[in-house]
Amino acid sequence: MPNPTPPLLQVTDLVKTYGRVQALQGVSLSANSRAIGLLGPNGSGKSTLIKVLLGLLKPTSGTASVLGLDSRRDALRIRQLTGFMPESECLIPRMSAVQYVTLAGQLVGMPAGDALARAHDVLHALDLGEARYRDIDTYSTGMLQRVKLAQALVHHPKLMFLDEPTNGLDPKGRDDMLALIRDISQRKGINVVLSSHILHDVESVCDELIVLHRGRLIASGPLAKIIGIAESALDVRFRGDRAALEGAMRAEGLSPRKMGEEADRMLVPVADVRQTAPVLRAAAKAGAQIRHMAPAKKSLDDVFAGMIEAADK
Fold this sequence. Notes:
By secondary structure, the chain is an alpha/beta fold. It contains eleven helices and 14 strands. It has helices spanning about 45-55, 75-80, 95-105, 110-125, 140-155, 170-185, 200-205, 225-230, 240-250, 275-285, 300-310, and strands at about 10-20, 20-30, 35-40, 60-65, 70, 80-85, 160-165, 190-195, 210-215, 215-220, 235-240, 255-260, 265-270, 290-295. The strands form three sheets. Strands 6-7-8-3-9-10 form a six-stranded mixed sheet, with helices on both faces. The longest helix is centred in the middle third of the chain and has 16 residues, at about 170-185.
C-alpha cells in the first residue's frame, strides 16, 4: 500500500524558550486543511511557532514538520516549498517592487529570468502592475502589504505562512487583503496558514483552527467543530441595575459576561439553555425585567473569549 500523505503541519511536544521565558510550552498538534487559522492574543507564541516550523528558529525540545519535512534537518527545503509573509518589516529600501519580488524568487532557487517573469505576473495579479517599477519607499501601507504577499507567492509555493497580513490596514484594505487570501486558498490551490489576533480575519478565511495562549495549545481542529462544542449560553436583554442583576446571578451559580457593546445585554453560560429558572429568579431578586432571553448564537468571538477565560483559570 502507498504511504499516506503526511499532514501539512505536525508538531509534537514542542518547547521553545528564550532564557526564562517559555514562548512555546509542550505544543502538540496536527493540521491538514486548505486554510488553517493560527489564532491567539499578542504574545501567545504564534510567530515563534511559525519560525520554528520554517526552521528559522531551533526548538528547545520536541519536533516539528511541514509537508512531511523535519524543520531541523530540512529547513532549506521547507523554505523552498513554502512562502512566508512576516509581520515585521521585510522590504528593502530603494528597490522597485518588481526588483524586490524578483530577488525573493531568486533566493528560493528560481532562475533569474523565471523569477522576473513570475514577479511581473504576481504583481499584476495583486493590482500592483502599474506601480511595479516605483520605489517601494513611496508605497502606501496597503501596497506594502501586497508586496510582502507577492514575495511570498512568487515561486508558487505549496503552502503559505501569513503572519498578521492585515496589520495597519483600514477596513477596506483589510477586506481586500482577506479576499486575496481566500482566492489564493480556494482558487489557486495553495494551502494557507493565517496567523492573526483578529477573530474576524481568521473566521472569514479559515476552516481549521489552532488556538494558542501564553505558549500553550488550548484548541485545535475544524472551525465548525470548535464553535459547535462551545459552551451553551443564553443571550439575555434586561432592564434594571446591571451590577445588581450580575450579583444575583452569581448567587445562583451563574457567570454572566458582557456581550457586545450594549449595556442592557449579557451572555449567561448555562448547562442547558432550557433551564431558564435561575436567570428568572436572579432577575426577580435584583428587581430587573428580562426583556429577551434566547439561546445565544455561537460565534468565534464568544468561543475564543470562553477559551481564554478558561485557560487563565
